[in-house]
């Protein structure tokens, strides 16, 4: 896709200095700009690069004045960083603006399909599925029986949505993710082995949820595993059966959440966090990376460590931990002096 400086300026409500007809078809860093690329300048540290960049178009601040000749066409805006971000959104919308049903793909006769959908090749839509308007389902996606997918949701290549899952509006589920697989439910039996507990619940994903690649969300044993509105999940996260994640919570990669955990609203959970089962995490909680959570967490707590400690307590303790060899040596010396004094 190609865009002219004039088209970009119109989107950004910017002012052009240079060739309004110059075209771009890719993005670049300002220091790596080349012909046909679009870049931006927001950090003054990178200003010297604007005089050497080969980028065809550069977005700059409205008050930028070149001290010498520039080869790049300038588009002046109020905030270059925000303008560039807006342009990325527009580009993404255009790039992902697919529609139509590719062949081969399969749609059950009992499925209900909305308007303006995209269905990629080798996608499979099972019995009694309901798909809303403007939904995009990329190639090699499997949609199980009785699934509901509401409008403007995108499911990327290779994702698997098991039966009875409900997905809200404006969601994105990225490649390789699996939603609705059985929870890890096994019980010891009289033979000394483990018997599988049937997992007959489902998964509910509310509106405006983003689920990263290769993330797994297990169905509930009974009832529902629930991902509330606005939740953002990174890649490679495990969400176990009957977990509930509150609105607008964000979770980084490789976090594992055991069964029946309840996480509140507006939480931020770092990468590689482990949360034990049946715990309650309050609202506005911050959990630092690689923390092991084995207790309930109150609202507004910031925690770190394994097992987790209060954030400030952890750092106070860590100061002493770093000095542990010195402290041990001091204690040993004191013990010797005390012993010598006692002997006298």
From TrEMBL:
Gene Ontology, cellular component aspect: membrane
Keyword Lipid biosynthesis appears in the UniProt entry: yes
Active-site residue numbers: 241
Pathway(s) where this gene product acts: Bacterial outer membrane biogenesis; LPS lipid A biosynthesis
Keyword annotations: Acyltransferase, Lipid A biosynthesis, Lipid biosynthesis, Lipid metabolism, Repeat, Transferase
Swiss-Prot/TrEMBL catalytic activity: a UDP-3-O-[(3R)-3-hydroxyacyl]-alpha-D-glucosamine + a (3R)-hydroxyacyl-[ACP] = a UDP-2-N,3-O-bis[(3R)-3-hydroxyacyl]-alpha-D-glucosamine + holo-[ACP] + H(+)
Enzyme Commission number: 2.3.1.191
Listed GO MF terms: N-acyltransferase activity; UDP-3-O-[(3R)-3-hydroxyacyl]-glucosamine N-acyltransferase activity
UniProt keyword DNA damage present: no
Domain spans labelled UDP-3-O-[3-hydroxymyristoyl] glucosamine N-acyltransferase non-repeat region: 21-89
Biological process, per Gene Ontology: lipid A biosynthetic process
Pfam families assigned: Hexapep, LpxD
Family: Belongs to the transferase hexapeptide repeat family. LpxD subfamily.
Protein function: Catalyzes the N-acylation of UDP-3-O-acylglucosamine using 3-hydroxyacyl-ACP as the acyl donor. Is involved in the biosynthesis of lipid A, a phosphorylated glycolipid that anchors the lipopolysaccharide to the outer membrane of the cell.
The protein's assembly and partners: Homotrimer.
HAMAP family in the record: LpxD
Protein name as it appears in the record: UDP-3-O-acylglucosamine N-acyltransferase
């Amino acid at each position: 896709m190609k865009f002219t400086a004039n088209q970009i300026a119109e989107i950004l409500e910017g002012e052009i200095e240079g060739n309004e007809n110059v075209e771009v078809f890719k993005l670049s860093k300002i220091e790596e700009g080349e012909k046909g690329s679009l870049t931006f300048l927001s950090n003054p540290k990178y200003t010297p690069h604007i005089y050497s960049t080969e980028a065809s178009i550069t977005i700059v601040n409205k008050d930028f004045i070149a001290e010498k000749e520039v080869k790049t066409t300038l588009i002046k805006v109020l905030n270059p960083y925000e303008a560039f971000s807006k342009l990325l959104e527009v580009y993404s919308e255009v790039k992902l603006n697919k529609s139509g049903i590719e062949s081969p793909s399969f749609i059950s006769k009992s499925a209900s399909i909305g308007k303006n959908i995209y269905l990629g090749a080798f996608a499979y839509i099972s019995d009694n599925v309901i798909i809303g308007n403007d939904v995009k389902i990329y190639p090699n996606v499997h949609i199980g029986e009785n699934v509901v997918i509401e409008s403007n949701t995108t499911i990327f290549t290779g994702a698997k949505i098991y039966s009875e899952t409900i997905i809200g509006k404006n969601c994105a589920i990225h490649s390789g993710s699996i939603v609705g697989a059985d929870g890890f439910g096994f019980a010891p039996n009289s033979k000394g082995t483990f018997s599988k507990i049937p997992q007959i619940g489902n998964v509910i994903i509310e509106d405006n949820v983003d689920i990263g690649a290769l993330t797994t969300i297990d169905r509930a044993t009974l009832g529902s595993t629930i991902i509330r509105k606005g939740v953002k999940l990174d890649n490679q996260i495990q969400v176990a059966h009957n977990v509930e994640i509150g609105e607008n919570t964000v979770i980084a990669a490789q976090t594992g959440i055991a069964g029946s955990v309840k996480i509140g609203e507006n939480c931020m959970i770092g990468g590689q966090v482990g949360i034990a089962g049946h715990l309650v995490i309050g609202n506005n909680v911050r959990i630092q990376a690689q923390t092991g959570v084995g207790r309930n967490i109150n609202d507004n707590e910031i925690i770190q460590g394994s097992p987790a400690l209060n954030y400030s307590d952890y750092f106070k303790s860590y100061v002493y931990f770093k000095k542990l060899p010195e402290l041990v040596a001091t204690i040993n010396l004191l013990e010797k002096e005390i012993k010598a004094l006692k002997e006298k």
